[in-house]
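User: I'm putting together notes for a lab meeting next week and I want to include a structural view of one of the chains we've been expressing. I don't have a solved structure, so I'd like a prediction I can at least talk through. The sequence is below, exactly as it appears in our construct file.
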Amino acid sequence: MTRPQTITDAIEDAQDTEAPKLSSKEIFEVIREEGEEELERPNASLFWSGIAAGILISLSVLGEAIFRTYLPPADWAYLVENLGYSLGFLAVILGRMQLFTENTITTVLPVVQDRSLTLLKRMCVLWMIVLGANVIGAFLVATLMAHTSAIPADLLPAIEELSRHATGFPAMEGFQRAIPAGLLVASIVWMLPRSEGFGFFVIVVFTWLIAAGDFTHVVAGSVEMAFLMVQGLLSPSDAVFQFFLPVLAGNIVGGTVIFTLLAFGQVRHELVEEKDT
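Assistant: Thanks for the context. Below is the predicted structure for the 277-residue chain, given as structure tokens.
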């Protein structure tokens, strides 16, 4: 039995100058097969990969904090500062770790194509495992930041400032700002198979846009939420109901309800025709 082609395989194939350009249907199939592979992974593998992603996504917060601390005051500093946000996503996506917002498209495509209740249940289990692991990883690294000397003291004020801003939106505004973030992360997943060796830049540009646009991301934001919570600066009720649940819902709406269903809609008839023939 041949191994399903992964997104990384597709990128390597696209780098071959003789390889044909991938069509929308072919991109769909690559991501769908990647999703099927993820759905078949053991729960323990998903959990530990999710823990790693939750820890390494903290590089986004750390990167922004470093730029904010050391850049001179200037109108352009905000745009440069937000390049630091890309660091965590680069580590997680290129490292092929389990990030919840990637799964709002990757593992959904097999479900929307096959419309299988079994796949739907498995997808929900995967979402719960990965999201829970991401949050655990976020709390682990936030505790390290807040209560050890692992992070230079000069950076802590910037981390706290960023954290207060990220978790300070009213619930409805946080939800609305999370929709574009979900769309952008899903767009990264969709574009990587055709990036032709430029996946690094695709990730940097689109995650920079999340930060520069002041959109909200549930996993990166969980590091900031946890940083405040472990110091008693944010109550559990505000963390859950003002930040976490609204942003989670917005990321799912952007990544699954909008982007994934539109992506499926544009190839659905082609897939049906291929199946009939």
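A couple of points you could mention at the meeting. DSSP finds 14 helices and no strands in the chain. The first helix runs from residue 7 to 15.

User: Perfect, that's what I needed.
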